Structure of Catalase:
Amino acid sequence: VGKMAAAMPHNPNKQAEHGRDKALTPPEGASVQPPSRDATGSTLAEKNHTEKYGKPAAPGVNAAGGSLERVRADPEGQPLTTNQGVRVSDNQNSLKAGLRGAALLKDFVLREKITHFDHERIPERVVHARGSGAHGYFECYEPLSSLTQASLFAEAGKITPVFVRFSTVAGERGSKDTARDVRGFAVKFYTDEGNWDLVGNNMPVFFIQDAMKFPDLVHAVKPEPHHAMPQAASAHDTYWDFVSLMPESTHMLMWQMSDRAIPRSFRMMQGFGVHTFRFVNAQGESTFVKFHWNPKLGTHSLVWDEAVKISGADPDYNRRDLWEAIESGAYPEWELCVQAFTEEQAEAFSFDVLDATKIVPEELVPLQPVGRMVLNRNPDNFFAETEQVAFCAAHVVPGIDFTNDPLLAGRIHSYVDTQITRLGGPNFHELPINAPLAPVQNNQRDGMHRQAIHRGRSSYEPNSLGGGCPHQAGTQGFVSFPEPIHADEVRGKPEKFAEHYNQAALFYNSQTEAEQRHIAAAFRFELSKVTVPAVRRRVVSMLRNASEELAAEVAQGLGMELPEAMPRALAKTPKPEVEVSPALSLTARQGDAGIQSRQVAVLVADGVDGAAVWDATHALQEQGAVVRLVGPHIGAVTPREGPAIDADASLENHPGVLFDGVIVPGGPDAAKRLAADPKAREFLTDQFLHSKTIWASRDAEALLRQAGITAQDEELPGIFVTAKGGSKALQNFVSALGHHRHFERERPAA
Ligand code: HDD
């Protein structure tokens, strides 16, 4: 019997199992082989090693730390096993008492599999639940030792590995990418003196001044508690109720209602440390510092109508963009800049630098570039890396310290605390993505899921039984900046914190006309979703203190009388140093990358001018654009002459909102087919309304007219209608595409 069981371990009549052999075996050539994993990795992006990825842990380094290679699991050529490494013979059928009999309790293979599955989910982040991550490196330009002893800034050319996570704030883990929201911009630097997390946003200010209000803010913006709506949206009663009672939020509201809240790409947005931090040099001297990340591709955004449509067409829009750019080798890059200023300078400012609702205008303290960050590798596994990464505003390294910003103080507590629930215990620092490259040694012990195997008898300090180790590092370690303090313990705010409108006005007044129009439209949209008129009135009364023009426009858009301005907290408003700052407009940073990684659609249908399709496609690809051939359906399209064209996208699965520009090549038959297709018309209408670049053959005139593009419109910027193709026309298209959008032609109602 024993022998028989070994030869026929399952159903003795295995071949007869219903549908077994044919249904589960893909025909030859129809299965995808995993990429072969050689020493350099499997994908282009993987070939770019970072130290975190490529090297074994140094002796003495935390057992969980160091190289991620150590924990990578590749199934290639491997049999399926249980978690105990026992090979699984049959992954289709549970163990039963007879083919039609009851399942057996002793089926440990089934039970292990189901039990593990039952516990696959962990709690999502209470805010910033939806995010996308990438690996890369930071490179220091010049030694910054006069300002800071932080080792990552110690030498020109010094490389420090990083992991970055971008996120929306309010939406749940599965929510859309293009919600109107702040974007998180969190960077973990694995420096050789420990991890530094710069946990910032794509906006340089915050809604509130004191961490005491953070739970209130988040409760107000999240879906309302009784019916859990709306998802990933601030356009609802409780949010506007709260912010309208918190006039300190006015400045942040300007940013949040601006196009910055709907970035075209994570790769095209700025990042900010928000708070004022301290640099501390080796002599113990401190300088205040603000951190800025400026994207090489420039700052570019969507327009609202487009964002709304993208959320249906591709809810993963920003995540996909980041992933595909890195896979294709178009590595996103940012320059890190600092604004460094002394406490004495700060004393003289009309605002308080400890107030996170205020910026330090660049005109007051210029930006100093200190290094660059390149993201060059996608994570191997979303959960292990992007989901389990734990950022913490308290993670600083020698040379970087806090200030007394009361919002920052709460953060120093909150981030570690939240991981204990989210990641299930106090040892989350040992997860490979969180573990530092620097050695970890201390007497913290045990707890859920401990990985390190601590050796020796002593887990206390001082000790003599362990040779006194690990010993404290004295001045070689992190020394908190010894800020002198002479004060009473109070609950309250300094007086400058009470001025809420100067910088809201500064922001609004520094925007271009189109940006101002979009801000007014955003307030109108959001407040039109508010069902309580008193809340709408309170917001508009607040706006009057920032901009009468904006308040009037919003009031008109909401069909309401202009209310009285909200009383100000300060009797006398301090005069701001700067009243207009061009750097605050998105147009200030257009980037220098031309059309690299821009998405262009070439519309194709039977009868299209094949030569024109390929000329345009190849020329654009040469300049780094991503070209998709979009047809009425995917697959073969028959051109006027030449071989069939393989459309890789369709008007249905890739609508116009997913592209930065469109080309409609010649071919009267193709043009006629497209003009008769409502989806092609909508494609062009959206491209036109969203101020994108359009180049169409004269053959496509009927399509243009159907899309609402008149003969006069053809004269507008970013629209080219030509009888023939040719390099001049192509050049015009490329240079217009490089401008991103042509808001000059925007119709005010858009
Ligand atoms: Fe926060 C996550 C950024 C104020 C408490 N925050 C979180 C993330 C970012 C920020 C980017 C996501 C990190 C990731 O990708 O995992 N938060 C900010 C900025 C703030 C800010 C720029 C203001 C300047 N946050 C703030 C306050 C508190 C928190 C005042 C609490 C007192 N934040 C959290 C948190 C989160 C978080 C609850 C949720 C998940 C996590 O930490 O890991 O602890």
Summary: Residues 406-422 form the longest helix (17 residues). Residues 125-128, 131, 165, 167, 184, 186, 199-201, 206, 211, 214, 274-275, 356, 390-391, 407, 410-411, 414-415, 418 surround HDD (CB under 6 Å). The chain has three domains: 131-430, 499-588, 599-745.
